User: Fold this.
Amino acid sequence: MPKVREVRTTDQANQEDVFFGQTVIVWARWSVIVAGIVLVLWTSKDVGHLMVTMPFFLVLMAMNFFLHGRYVMGSPLNRVIVTVASVVDLVLITAIVVFWPGSSGAANQFFVLYFPVVFAFALVFTRRVEVVYTVLAMIAYTGACLLTGSARIDLGPLDKTIVMRLIVIAAMGFLGNYYFRIQRDRLARASGGGAPGMEQTRANLQPALRGTRS
Assistant:
């Protein structure tokens, strides 16, 4: 099969990925905000608990309003600021895991908020950047569990649960970036003047069809 050459340069491809991928990160953050607020309202037993827990998500909401507004107005942020905003997401989620009243560390179920932000980030950035971000998320959660005394090094039942959660975080990053690379390869084939999708599929199926007829 002839090697497909992409018309775009690597720098152009990265810029376009960040431009069009910002909407993925923005909506992933909105899903985190909505889920978090629903859980806060569901689990809060008094106004005091609500006043302590709600600010975490109000900060995320304010930041996302800014990012979403810039994107809608046609002036999205650059690669560095998007990365910094995604790191802030990890900081805020880790703060929720550490400081949530009544349940912190491994007992805090808000660890699931790592999943959408890691997956969305992996859909936008290259493998090298995604790996750094995913590892940072895993270190942040491990540090939160160690800081709250939830994790030890004897691999008891609770520690095994933490390890399983870390594996899922890693899987979110891997699967998101795997899909990202598939889509970039398809775009490279299209911009390189390759055959349309249906014609390419038929060409790939010809050997199998010949085998069934013989």
